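[Q] Does anyone have a clean structure-token version of this?
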Amino acid sequence: MGRLFSFFTRRVVYHALFWALLLVLLTLFEESPGKGFFFTLSNELINLFFYGLIVYFNLFYLIPNYLTKKRFLTYCGLLIAATLVITPLKMLALYFKFSGHPGAQDNLLRNMNWYFLVTFLIASSSTIFKIITDWARHLREKQELQTQTMQSELRFLKSQINPHFLFNTLNNLYALTLKKSDQAPEIVLKLSEMMRYMLYECNEKRVPLSKEINYIRNYLDLERLRQGKNVEINFEVSGEAQDQKIAPLMFIPFLENSFKHGLNNHLTKGFVNMRLLVDNNQVHFYIENSKPDTPPKQDSRRPSGGIGLVNIHRRLNLLYPNQYQLDIEDSPKAYAVNLQINLDN
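[A] Here you go.
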């Protein structure tokens, strides 16, 4: 099917089909009583020759050299001049062909203005056809470019998320191995399950929401092991995650920031509270983390902030345009994110 479509969309093929169809229609509708089929067919072949002459002169010379360069008045003048030259040539050829038919010659001379008008309309129609096909081609190329740009940006953004989380986790694991903690093997198992998800399933544009929730649970279990009893980490899921699908790792940057800029800066107790409400094809995500009484000092040698929130904004705009609402509340004691996404059906 694809090869057939490609064949018929070639310029030579669809031009040939157009002229063949036009020849059939003109032959069927021409009134030549008593003169026979081949007489009529030969008349229309002459008509088509001169129609083709002015159409391709217009397409390959006048439009590229005048119309596309916005020389509109010059283009119109030359198109009319071409009509005034080609139409008499066609009429002369038909007049000699009708040498044995005086009635046909008289009819040709009486309808001279009509022949000029038809030739000009056909030439003008080729201009309209060219404008429409160029517009459709430019629109298609623009859409293809936008699609390629979107896919490239998504691959780039996701490639930033995965290493970011991996580096944080490996640092946590390294700290526990230095303490020779018995929790290290459990972290390795959690990490291997998460890496399997990231490597083999997150390459898809959409993943099952249930697997994304399981990934978050593993992430929080890992953080509970690392943080110890000085912090409170809560995760509540409401509703049923069945066949819904979501873009992978959509919520992880918010979790990372909650621990990186929240709990990790506390000297005493802190909290991270997260809720996920699944309502048919809509997901409500809420996360709140405590903030330290005294903001940590920034290292002037390192850039402040992370890439997570910048990426999540770009991913939401690319993947869910006009289908999400993101509200962030930054108070002196807590930082909260409320995200609502309308999932794909």
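[Q] Thanks! Anything notable?
[A] The beta strands are 207-208, 231-238, 245-246, 270-279, 282-290, 324-330, 334-342.
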